[in-house]
Amino acid sequence: xxxxxxxxxxxxxxxxxxxxxxxxxxxxxxxxxxxxxxxxxxxxxxxxxxxxxxxxxxxxxxxxxxxxxxxxxxxxxxxxxxxxxxxxxxxxxxxxxxxxxxxxxxxxxxxx
Length: 112
What we know:
By secondary structure, this protein is mainly α. The protein has a domain at 25-38 and 60-111. The chain is 41% helix and 4% strand. The chain is built from 5 helices and 2 strands. It has helices at residues 28-38, 44-48, 61-73, 79-88, 90-96, and strands at 104-105, 110-111. Strand 1 (104-105) and strand 2 (110-111) form a beta hairpin. The longest helix has 13 residues, at 61-73. The relative contact order is 0.14.
């Protein structure tokens, strides 16, 4: 009987990923991240969210702006497609700090 090495192609593997190393200088995503982090004043959003004493934590406006602008630059306009990209695309993961966003339907008031 033949002796083959085992096939591990269907086995999950946990790989440590340094998200900061995924955004390379000179790329659009690096420039976008730098501009949003260092040159935009997003403190106006702090006045809107008064959930420090109760309620669920909100996503950072910095993270949301990075994701939305990068998604639109890639032609992703569907919130469901953006959600999927944040789960499987390493660049979206790096920009969002691996925040697991969820599509929320405002019309039906439930997760889809």
